[in-house]
Amino acid sequence: MSAHEQDEALRMLRRYSTTWYEPTVSMPPGLLEATAGTYLCLRATDEIEDHPDLSAQDRSVLLEGVARTLEESLTRPRLDHVFAPHRESLPDVTLRMAEWAALIPAGIRPRALDTVAVMAARMASWCRPGVTIRTEQDLNRYTYAVSGCVVMTYSDLWSWYDGTDTDRIDGLHYGRALQAGNIYLDRETDLARGVNYWPAGWHEAEMLGYIQSNLDGARAYVAAMPDTSPARRFFGPPLQLYLSKLAKLPQTSYAR
């Protein structure tokens, strides 16, 4: 990756995530490209799912096209063809997905892009008209689809880079805890755009209980990482940030 390409990627990452920017720039060469490229591909996909001006059907078709392209043969022209009907509406981070994919080192790129493809396909199913989260089991499936499986891939990045082994079950809890925390914190914004990720009949107590049920595993996932490892530098600060946000809410005690 040239210095210009790295600067472009990090500029885009910083634009979309203050949470993950600092952990990413703290990564050593090789792992920096892997984490930055993977994050941006995932973000490119997420921007389709969350697009405020596209219909559920259009978002689903786009996500299916992304998944199919990643599974078959990722090239810029093939992705451009997928995006063409909505090019004017899609953000730059999505339109440049092929660039972000090329940043990921070849030795781990297939694994990272497989996760992007799987996440896009699962998001496509959640975007279909009439599909909603009705039960805790639905919420489990959703948080796994958009966050839990992503943490599994980052676990593979640590193993690929320096052999760091992590507990995948605890990693799943980490992903679910942070995603559920986002769902809780973004409640009003989501409802304003007509989206509801809360199971039917759930109130704050149930959602906070769901978050709490995953936090022990999330803490264990980070605590088991070597103190000086890139893995801990990457995943430790975002967890502490979310714990701090949740601790400021009424009747919560997540910072302990």
TrEMBL record:
Alphabetized UniProt keyword annotations: Transferase
- Where would one find coiled-coil regions in this protein? none
Pfam families the UniProt entry points to? SQS_PSY
Q: Which GO terms describe its molecular function?
A: transferase activity
Signal peptide annotation: none
What name appears for this protein in its UniProt entry?
A: Farnesyl-diphosphate farnesyltransferase
